Amino acid sequence: MACFANLEHYFTSFLILLADNFIQTYQHMSKSFSFGLLLTALLLTTSACKKQENAGASMDSTANTTVVKEFKTGTTHGVVMKIDTMRQEITLHHDSIPGIMEGMTMPFRVAEKSLTQKVKVGDSVTFTVKEDVNSMFNIIAIDKR
Questions:
Q1: Residues 129, 138: contact at Cβ < 8 Å?
Q2: What burial letters (b/e) apply to 75-90, b meaning 16+ CB within 10 Å?
Q3: How do residues 104-133 score in pLDDT, each as one tens digit?
Q4: Cα separation, 17 vs 112, whole angstroms
Q5: Residues in the chain with pLDDT < 70?
Q6: pTM score, two decimals?
Q7: Cα separation values, 83 from 66, 104, 123, 129, 131, Å
């Protein structure tokens, strides 16, 4: 009986050690698995971020390219047809503006409201226009001829 008691004691100790070893292995595997899972998630996230950055880089490479647009400026002669101080516009029947447009009658916005007060309807004028960021031409100078 004592032999069985010892055997039972050894068997119980063996089961406890086995269970303890299993728990430690499981915890280690669990930690390793958790670490592996975390590492995989991190790599996937980093990979996705790189793809986004690369996609952004290709978009940004054109968006961040500094394009210096040279705004066209031209001077010509014309006749004042209408002055609209509220809209800050002067309508001119003008000669062609070389490299910009053919002669026609059209309203131009003025760069400064004070320019509308320098002339009156019927005046022959020399004026200068400059292209703005919206590709519109604004009067930047106007004088009677």
A1: yes
A2: ebebbbeebeeeebbb
A3: 999 999 999 999 999 999 999 999 999 999
A4: 92
A5: 1-64
A6: 0.54
A7: 38, 16, 11, 16, 20
